[in-house]
Amino acid sequence: HSGLSIQEMVAMSPELDTYAITKKVKEVLTDNNLGQRLFGETILGLTQGSVSDLLARPKPWHKLSLKGREPFVRMQLWLQDPHSVEKLMDMKRLEKKAYMKRRLSSLSDSHTVDTAFLGPDYVQGSLSPGQQHLKKPRVVLGPEEKEALKKAYQQKPYPSPKTIEELASQLNLKTSTVINWFHNYRSRIRRELFIEEIQSAGGVGPGSEGGSPSLRGSKSGEGDSCDGTESEGTVEARQGLGLGLEDHRGACKDQDMEAESEAGGSNNSPAQLDCTTSSLAGPGSSCGQGGLGLFSLTEASSSSSAPSTNIPAPGPARNPRDNNLRKKKAANLNNIIHRLEKAASKEDPSEWEF
DNA sequence: TACGAGTCAATACC
DNA sequence: GGTATTGACTCGTA
């Protein structure tokens, strides 16, 4: 695109609505029966798992590093390409053809080892079959171990090396496993909090970095997300973008939904974003957007107001299990937040209750 | 050196 | 078979 590298484009990109982008991508993929693996590998250069994660839990733009923004810029470009679906369909056909060809040749030569069973490394010739066995088996933590780790986390999210050692020996795990678990858990809790904070429509401006926004209960009262505060974004850049502003209003209007949201309720209407996402649909969109540029999505959501444009909807595919999971997570987070709030209100650490 | 961010890839789940 | 989850890893940064 315009001879710019993707990094340059990311650097120059205005704020994008990551939620709207992923929503649209999911739509296009399902509508055209295209898998995450194919999309990830050909468009984003990511694996299926990463794509799944990105699509299910997009971080708000302002929370992303340059590297983290890259897939969203790629998705945006892909959505703006009128032939995007065709191209991916072609790739799908080619893959199928190649697969059939491989199957045929492996069937015709009974002496040939079916590389499908040997993994990509072997296919690429980097590993011999013998070496396959050297691969580290994945550690799968049992429910009791997870429970114990979670309890330990609630007591100390940043355990000392000594605590880690103790945990590891008590649970019969390697210390590196315990360390990794804490890293991952912190990171994922943080990500869940981003989502929760967006969902509760409080909006996090750049100024709310000093702690969990949920703790502050600031909502948007400071004028950040609901007062139209401008950051780098210009009014001109918002033209024809109804997206951020409208959703924004919706988000502010729905502040009283927070309680329900925190309880894991699904209170976001996917329809809210219809017009939003249609701005991604390119020419022919019914939501009146004139001559949108490359990154036309959400200048509307200035950095201070971005989160509220990224309202994560539960999505139509949510099954009861997902909802339960969400409820559990929300409850767990609220529990943690509650304890942190209590702790924060007591000056003497000895009074902190965890 | 510890941490966060981002990602891979094995596994679980539907 | 496609998608979601999650332990492990790399890399950049303070």
Architecture overview:
This protein has 354 residues and is mostly helical. It has helices at 6-12, 18-31, 36-44, 48-56, 66-80, 84-108, 119-123, 129-132, 143-155, 161-171, 175-199, 213-216, 243-253, 258-262, 274-278, 306-309, 320-344. Helix 1 packs across helix 5 and helix 2 crosses helix 5. The model is unreliable at 112-127, 203-322 and 346-354 (pLDDT under 50). The chain binds a DNA duplex (14 and 14 nucleotides) through helix 4, helix 5 and helix 11. Keywords: Coiled coil, DNA-binding, Homeobox, Nucleus, Repeat, Transcription, Transcription regulation. GO terms for molecular function: DNA-binding transcription factor activity, RNA polymerase II-specific; RNA polymerase II transcription regulatory region sequence-specific DNA binding. InterPro entries: CUT_dom, HD, Homeobox_CS, Homeodomain-like_sf, Lambda_DNA-bd_dom_sf.
